[in-house]
Structures are given as structure tokens and as C-alpha cells.
Design brief:
There is one protein chain. This protein has 78 residues and is mostly helical. The chain has a domain at 22-56. 82% of the residues lie in helices and 0% in strands. The longest helix is centred in the middle third of the chain and has 64 residues, at 2-65. The protein is rod-shaped. The relative contact order is 0.04. The mean pLDDT is 90.
Length: 78
């Protein structure tokens, strides 16, 4: 009978350990999910900034073709 009670106690201890690990893993998954959401938001913002920069570069390169000579800096020998 004592052997049977020891076996039940061991099983209960193992179940308690599994429940603790499960709770810890749930917490870690929740933290990772939050971090992933933050990073996805940051990436979306960076992509939007890249689009704006690309548009500005494109518009500046187009306008520099039509630049007036007086807007150009003087050559180095001046």
C-alpha cells in the first residue's frame, strides 16, 4: 500500500511540475507575441518611411535635371 501511495505522490509531483512548466510557457508565448506585434508595427513604420524617402529622392532627382544654372554651386576653382 505504501508503494502505491508513493507512486501516486510521484505522479502528483510530475503533474504539478508539468502544470508549472505549462504556465511558464504560456507566459513566455504571451511575451513573445507582444514583442512580435511591436516589431511588426515598427517594420510597417519603417517601410512607410522608406517609401517616403524613395519618393523624395525620386522627386529631387527629377527636379535636379531641371535645375537652374544659378542654383548650382560654383566649380571648385572659383
Amino acid at each position: 500500500m505504501t508503494n502505491h501511495l508513493d507512486h501516486i505522490a510521484q505522479l502528483e509531483a510530475r503533474i504539478d511540475a508539468l502544470e508549472a512548466r505549462n504556465a511558464f510557457q504560456d507566459d513566455v508565448i504571451e511575451q513573445l507575441n507582444h514583442e512580435l506585434a511591436v516589431h511588426q508595427k515598427d517594420i510597417a513604420e519603417l517601410k512607410e518611411h522608406m517609401k517616403l524617402i524613395a519618393q523624395r529622392i525620386k522627386s529631387n532627382s527629377n527636379s535636379s535635371i531641371m535645375a537652374r544654372p544659378e542654383d548650382e554651386p560654383p566649380p571648385p576653382h572659383y
